[in-house]
Amino acid sequence: MNIEGIVWVLGDNIDTDAIIAARYLSTVVPEELAKHLMEDIWPEFPQLVKKGDLIVAGTNFGCGSSREHAPLAIKGAGVSCVVARSFARIFYRNAINIGLPILECDADLKALESGKDRLKVDLKSGLIFNLQNSDSYQSAPFPPFMQELIARGGLVEYVKSRLG
Amino acid sequence: MNTEQFRYSGSTMVEKILAAKAGQAKVAPGDLVSVIVDLALGNDVTAPVAIREFKRFGLDRVYDPDRIVLVPDHFTPNKDIASAEQVKVVRLFADQQGIKHFYDVGRMGIEHALLPEKGLVWPGAVIIGADSHTCTYGALGAFATGVGSTDLAAAMAIGETWFKVPHTMRFEYKGTLAPWVSGKDLILFTIGQIGVEGARYRAMEFAGPVIDNLPMDGRLTMANMAIEAGGKCGYIQPDQITFDYLKGRVTRSYISVYSDQNAFYEKVFSYDVSNLEPQIAFPPSPDNVFPVSEAKNITLDQVVIGSCTNGRIDDLRVAASILKGKKVSPKIRLLVIPATQHIYSTALEEGLLKIFVDAEAAVSTPTCGPCLGGHMGILAKGEKALSTTNRNFVGRMGHPESEVYLCNPAVAAASAVAGRIVHPEEVS
C-alpha cells in the first residue's frame, strides 16, 4: 500500500497532552478531537493539516498518557501516516490497534519543510521517498505479528478472528 | 546478548512473571508472548472508548467480570455534562456486566492509589490498565503496565493480551537519604539522569539499600513515574515492607517472584544518593530536573498536593508536619487532594485535614482533577504551579502559557508557605 502526501514536521518528545489536551477528552469522536490536534504547541495546526498529509517527528513521539484519543485525533484529521525516529510504547500499540499507519525511521527528517515537502511511503517495504529531491529512506519493518494485526484491520478484527 | 545466550542466563522478575503467565518455561527480551491478564483497569476517560470497541466484538458478556476494575476518577465528581455522560456509560456497563469492582464518587479514589489499598494488586500478577500510570503496581512486585482503550477492550473480551518481553534495566540506590528527601526525589533524579526516553520500552528494576528501607508509599511513587522515563514498567521485588502492606488487604494466595542472581540486565545504574537534595522538575518536561537549591526566586500562584503519584497518607503527613500552625502565603492557592476515600478518612482522624484547612488550603474529595488540567484548579495564562504530580508538559494544568514545576510533598508544603520554591528547611 502506498501513501503520498505533504509533511508537517514536529520535534522530539511530542507528548500526548500536546497531541490532544485533556480538556478535550470528554468526547470520543475522532473528527471532534481533530479540531484541537496539536493546538497547544501549534495553534494553526488543525487548519493546516489536510486529509492525506503525513506527520514527521523526532524521537519518543506520543510519550505521556495512554489516551487513545491521541492517535484517534490524528486519524480524525485525515493524517495518512506518522513517521518518527521512535515512538513511545503505549502510543505505538494504540496506533496499530486503531489502524493508524506509523513507521519508525532512523533518518533525520527534521530538515523537511512543513507544508511543502512531499513524501511517498510504501508501507509494505517501509521505503520512504522524498518527492522533492528523490532522496529515499528505509524505515523499520513491522514484526510479523504486527503485520498480521495490521493486515486484519486492527486489534478488534484480530481478536474477533480468534473468537471465531 | 543474543537469544541463544539468554537460555543460559537467569531471568529478571518481569521475565519470570511473563513466562509464567504465557505458560512458558522461559522468555527472552524481544519475544512476543500472549499472557493471561489478572486484572484490567479503565477510567472515565479511557473506558468509554474501550466499551465502544468491546461492543464491536459482538459478545454479550466480558470474559470475567471479577478481573475488571472501573474507576471514574479523572473528571469526577462530574465536571460538566459531557463528562457526566462518559461516567454514565461506564456505570451502566459495570451494572450490565456485573462488574463489582466499580468505584463511584464517595467510595472511590484515584485508581492507582485505590487498587493497592483495596487488595487488588499482588506479587506476580499481570495487570494492564488503560492509564499510563498503571505501572505504579510494580511497587508490589506485580508486572503492571499502561495500555490503550482497544487493548483494554480485547482483554475484557478474551482475558489475555500480548506483550513484547522488555529488556530490564537495574537502578541501585546506595547511601542514606537526607531529611525531606523521598521516593519522589529518587525517581525525579533518575529521570533527570536518563531522560524521558532513557528507559523507553524497558522494565526498570529499583533496588539497593535505599529501596530496602523505603516505605511503601515512596515505592509506589517511584514505580508510578517509570512511564515518565518511557518505561514499560517499574518494579521493586517483594520484601517484608511489601508483605506488611499486603497483610489484611490481599487474601488470595500468591507467589512472590524474584530476579535471579545471574539475570541479564541491559544496563545497571548505581547512584550514591547520600547528598541528594529534594529535586525539582522544571517545565516543560519531567527530565528537566535540578536540585531545589538551584530553584531560586521562582514565585508561584498555585501549589497542588495530591495525585496517583503523591496523594497517599505519608505524603499528607509530611505536608501537615510543615503546615501545622502556619498559613499559606496570601498569594498562593494551595490544593490538597487525598488520593482515596480511605486516605481522606485517615487524614480526618489524624487531624491532618484540620491542619490544612487552618493553613488556608482547599481540601478536595479524591480526583485526578488538576493534575491533567481537567478541573478543580486550572491555571490561567502566565501562572506558575508547583505540584506533587507527575507531568509538567506544555499546557498540562491549564493555559498553554502556564507552567508546572514538579516536586515532593514536603517541598510543596514549604513552598506554599514561602510563596516561592524553597527547601523545607527554610520554613520548618
Work out the helix count of chain A. 7
Oligomer: heterodimer
- The strand order across the widest sheet of chain B is 15-14-13-16-17
How does the overall form of chain A come out from the CA principal axes?
Answer: globular
Q: Beta-strand level of the residues of chain A, as a percent range?
A: 15-25%
Mean residue pLDDT of chain B:
97
Query: What's the end-to-end separation of chain A, in Å?
Result: 28 Å
Question: Which pair of chains has the greatest number of interface residues, and how are they split between the two chains?
Answer: A-B, 42 and 51 residues
Mean pLDDT of chain A: 93
What's the shape of chain B? globular
Between the first and last Cα atoms of chain B, what is the distance in angstroms? 51 Å
Helix and strand pattern of chain A: EHHHEHEHEEEEHH
In the sheet with the most strands of chain A, the strands line up as: 4-3-2-1-5-6-7
- Derived from helix and strand composition plus strand pairing, the structural class of chain A reads alpha/beta
The poorly predicted ranges of chain A are none
Protein structure class of chain B: alpha/beta
SS elements, strand count of chain A: 7
Number of strand elements of chain B: 17
Relative helix content of chain B: 25-40%
Largest sheet of chain A: 7 strands, mixed
Q: Mind describing the biggest β-sheet of chain B?
A: 5 strands, parallel
